[in-house]
């Protein structure tokens, strides 16, 4: 019996394999829910900032124990959502495409990250001219950039990303306000040709669902229960999959497919509509 027995045949026939990743995070030092720009946010509900910090620190520790590199951008007072670093830039092949936020409350985050990337020595640094919430709405499969729209990122920003980053962009339309960013409804498990993704079909328009079925016939389809705890806000290194602990159905499915799920407690950050992926910007 071969070692891949039990895994499906097809493009992803090999056993899932981890590759080293480079992440950028920002501590939830000034984390709060002071305004509401998505259905998860209730400014009247209490938020425990110390608990949010413990959850974030644990998430960072998980990446480091897996052998990944984590760089930290300092948090700025007055920007309670800055912990969601994934929204601030899309970085591919050394080119940084900086964000332009839809909500005025988050607008200033983009400039802090731009300065951080500039200080880090990035020369190819372009700021988006249209609303562009970066990895919140862009997912790199290794071949194409999947791009969400419907609530935040402007479809014109998809064309701009293609132009700036020089990679093919596939636009997908989100239709459920709870899944306002692409990364709340879809994530990449394995990159490369024959990439594998996980997603929640109901979060997408009928046409986008057909596109996803056509491009990713062996995708892992999440249930409502997995999606509604932000279970699709996962971070995979090709083998280890960090995801919210409540996504138990997804944990079982991924284990059966040969992945190693790493459930984390992200409950405090979820009060702002975020999960592990939102806190994690990847330098591709
Ligand atoms: N409160 C933030 C917002 O609504 C949460 C962002 C979460 N980030 C993400 N990549 N989905 O903008």
UniProtKB/TrEMBL annotation:
Domain of life according to the entry: Bacteria
Keyword Hydrolase in record: yes
Enzyme Commission code: 3.5.3.18
Gene Ontology MF annotations: dimethylargininase activity
Key words of the record: Hydrolase
Membership in a protein family: Belongs to the DDAH family.
Protein's UniProt name: Dimethylargininase
Phylogenetic classification of the source organism: Bacteria, Bacillati, Actinomycetota, Actinomycetes, Pseudonocardiales
